[in-house]
From TrEMBL:
It catalyses: 2 H2O2 = O2 + 2 H2O. Keywords: Heme, Hydrogen peroxide, Iron, Metal-binding, Oxidoreductase, Peroxidase. This is Catalase. It comes from the Bacteria. PANTHER family: CATALASE, CATALASE-B. Decomposes hydrogen peroxide into water and oxygen; serves to protect cells from the toxic effects of hydrogen peroxide. Its cofactor is heme. Belongs to the catalase family. HPII subfamily. One of its GO terms (molecular function) is catalase activity. The keyword Transferase does not apply. Its EC number is 1.11.1.6.
Length: 677
């Protein structure tokens, strides 16, 4: 090889290298832009205008950056199910599936993480997608939700910037599925509207126990329109019947190593076992006359509506009861879009929502190969559809006749439009006026009050976890200045948050920016959620012993709704026929909600060692522990007897009540549990 050849290759590459530092921002056509923070709107609170070429260029380029996996929400799993209404909502909406309580509407739901690739692990600290496609008789309606009710940014033009910042850094493609790096926190410090969302992302909400125990939120403010044309503002919620629960951070990291498909497997297996996951659909509704009566702008996507001020009305139930037949054909090819609506549901001028209405179609065009993604089986409506669209990649429909335009006489002007009074969709006629501007509404400029409310609403263990999470993430940042900027920013949320984080990082404690508001929303704390033992997974640790005792304990726990797996030194069966589900080598305490020990007097040293390891780790993760028979001796030896959430004999008393509580934070706060956050 000629020694000059590498240099020639280097020269070829150099002409394509660009250093943006200290350069003026331009469009791809070289036009210098005076503003890159806000999309072009009709008035500060008005809708985004389609003539905003800069937004469209920026968003189009972003939407086409990855093929074939989704740019965000790439890691996901889905299931089929159904939705049924409790009571008619005709007072608020003319949407047929929200009027008829006898109607069962089929759905497909996809859960996902946001930042990681398709190959990332399930328990990354991240927001979760919770998107539902309702196959209604009036067309498909997509409720494209997250498990966090607010978002990082207020205007969709910033979405490419957010995702670029949180994704692996471009020079080394690290880290995967993690916000614990410089570019993300640099974005946070310099885009302080993200303060509220970051509080949620650093909380236990970002590491849910399962999809089945996770809330969903539509994030945006939408409209409901009734038959009389009257409008109400609405936010959508999914409330899990099993309650909202999380794991702890040390546990999450270990689960990612032991079973990176933990959430995916949990959803699949529970559906296979007939433990159909359920959520209730909740609506928060505000009349048009009350739009401006709150101390926040109801259109701001970085703000939630406190449930104590705007109660959640539970109106129906979602049940997932069938797994996909083919992951790619269904879960991977399903195409959601917040613009897929039906009569009776409409949009507001939320600038983040307005941008998504453009972005999602654009994304599907590149990801699914063209404009006919609606013809894929998973995306097809259950009702017939007719229009004058033709051809394109992936066309399935064979259109007959020669007419493909509107209006026409050759086909009697068909397909024809449908008057609104006969079910045709018509946009809500909201009055809009204002100058064409790139600006943010003054009512959107409070970035900290609801972040403070979130912090105030947390229990002591939840506050500790949030502080530990922020300390961990910022501790991964290499630039000291970023740590200092972020801690200074969060001193505007609360000094009781900023101070311990600063001390953990060894940087100066910022000044106290108080007095801080003392507003709370108890609904935000997971300690106030539903507590049930149903489908909780229990590890039953056994040695060679009487299978009758094992079966008795197993039967009692399963009768309370728990799922029990027998774990021993080897697989196979116990004397008497009890199946051993796992050996210690293939199981781990982090994969279970509770641990129960049974052992005979002649239990082997191997059993005692492995069972002790199981119990110690579960104790440190503040999980319920129990024993039966000689198993109590292990609890005594480990010093766990008498501690919160520890039961010496699960055959006496209700271990189900203990398991239902989920975690025993007293151990963590007292320092008895070594729960490394």
């Amino acid at each position: 090889m000629n020694n000059n050849e590498p240099n020639k290759k280097q020269q070829q590459l150099d002409q394509f290298r660009v250093n943006d530092k200290d350069k003026a921002l331009t469009t791809n056509q070289g036009l210098k832009m005076a503003e890159d923070e806000f999309s072009l709107k009709a008035g500060e609170r008005g809708p985004t205008l389609i003539e905003d070429f800069h937004f469209r260029e920026k968003m189009t380029h972003f939407d086409h950056e990855r093929i074939p996996e989704r740019i965000v929400h790439a890691r996901g799993e889905g299931a089929h199910g159904e939705f049924q209404l409790y009571e008619s909502l005709a007072e608020y909406t003319k949407a047929d599936f929200l009027n008829d309580t006898s109607k069962i509407t089929p759905v497909f739901v996809r859960f996902s993480t946001v930042a990681g690739s398709r190959g990332s692990a399930d328990l990354a600290r991240d927001a979760r997608g919770f998107s539902t496609k309702f196959y209604t008789d009036e067309g498909n309606y997509d409720l494209v939700a997250n498990n966090i009710p607010v978002f990082f940014i207020q205007d969709a033009i910033k979405f490419p910037d957010l995702v670029h910042a949180v994704k692996p850094e471009p020079h080394n493609e690290m880290p995967q599925a993690s916000a614990a790096h410089d570019t993300f926190w640099d974005f946070v410090a310099n885009n302080q509207e993200s303060a509220h969302m970051v509080m949620w992302a650093m909380s236990d909400r970002a590491i849910p126990r399962s999809h089945r125990m996770m809330e969903g939120f539509g994030v945006h403010t939408f409209r409901l329109i009734n038959k009389e044309g009257k409008s109400h503002f609405v936010k959508f919620h999914w409330k899990p019947v099993l309650g909202t629960h999380s794991v702890v951070w040390d546990e999450a990291q270990k689960i990612n190593g032991k079973n990176p498909d933990f959430h995916r497997e949990d959803l699949w297996q529970n559906i296979e076992d007939g433990n159909f996951p359920e959520w209730e659909l909740g609506l928060q509704i505000i009349g048009e006359d009350d739009e401006f009566k709150f101390d926040f702008d109801i259109l701001d996507p970085t703000k939630l509506w406190p449930e104590e001020e705007v109660p959640v009305k539970l109106v129906g139930k979602l049940t997932l009861n069938r797994n996909p037949d083919n992951f790619f054909a269904e879960t991977e090819q399903v195409a959601f879009h917040p613009g897929h609506i039906v009569p009776g549901i409409d949009f507001t001028n939320d600038p983040l929502l307005q941008g998504r209405l453009f972005s999602y179609t654009d994304t599907q065009l590149i990801r699914l190969g063209g404009p006919n993604f609606h013809e894929l089986p998973i995306n097809r409506p259950v009702c017939p559809f007719y229009n004058n669209q033709r051809d394109g990649y992936g066309r399935h429909t064979i259109n007959v006749g020669r007419v493909s335009y509107h209006k026409n006489s050759l086909a009697g002007n068909t397909p024809h439009t449908t008057p609104e009074e006969e079910g045709g969709f018509s946009h809500y006629q909201e009055r809009v006026e204002g100058h064409k501007v790139r600006a943010r509404s003054e009512s959107f400029k409070d970035h900290f009050s609801q972040a403070t409310m979130f912090f105030n609403s947390m229990s002591e263990p939840e506050k500790k976890h949030l502080i530990d999470a922020m300390s961990f993430e910022l501790g991964k940042c290499k630039e000291p200045s970023i740590r200092e900027q972020v801690v200074e920013m969060f001193s505007h949320v609360h000094i009781d948050l900023a101070r311990p984080v600063a001390e953990s990082l060894g940087i100066p404690v910022p000044s106290d920016k108080g007095p801080y508001n003392d507003k709370k929303s108890p609904a935000l704390s997971q300690l106030n959620t539903v507590m049930k033992p149903d489908t909780r997974k229990v590890a039953l640790l056994v040695s060679t012993q009487d299978a009758g005792q094992v079966q008795a304990v197993k039967d009692q726990l399963e009768a309370s709704g728990m799922t029990v797996e027998v774990v021993a030194e080897r697989q196979g069966k116990l004397d008497g026929g009890v199946v051993i589900d796992h050996k210690f080598l293939t199981a781990d305490s982090v994969l279970y909600d509770a641990v129960v020990a049974l052992s005979s007097p002649n239990a082997s040293d191997v059993y005692k060692k492995e069972a002790s390891t199981f119990l110690k780790e579960a104790f440190d993760h503040v999980k319920p522990l129990g024993a039966a028979g000689e198993g109590k001796a292990l609890l005594d030896e480990l010093g766990f007897t008498g501690e919160a959430g520890v039961i010496g004999n699960v055959l006496e008393g209700s271990f189900a009540d203990v398991v239902a509580k989920h975690r025993y934070w007293e151990r963590e706060l007292s320092g008895k549990a070594n729960n490394k956050q």
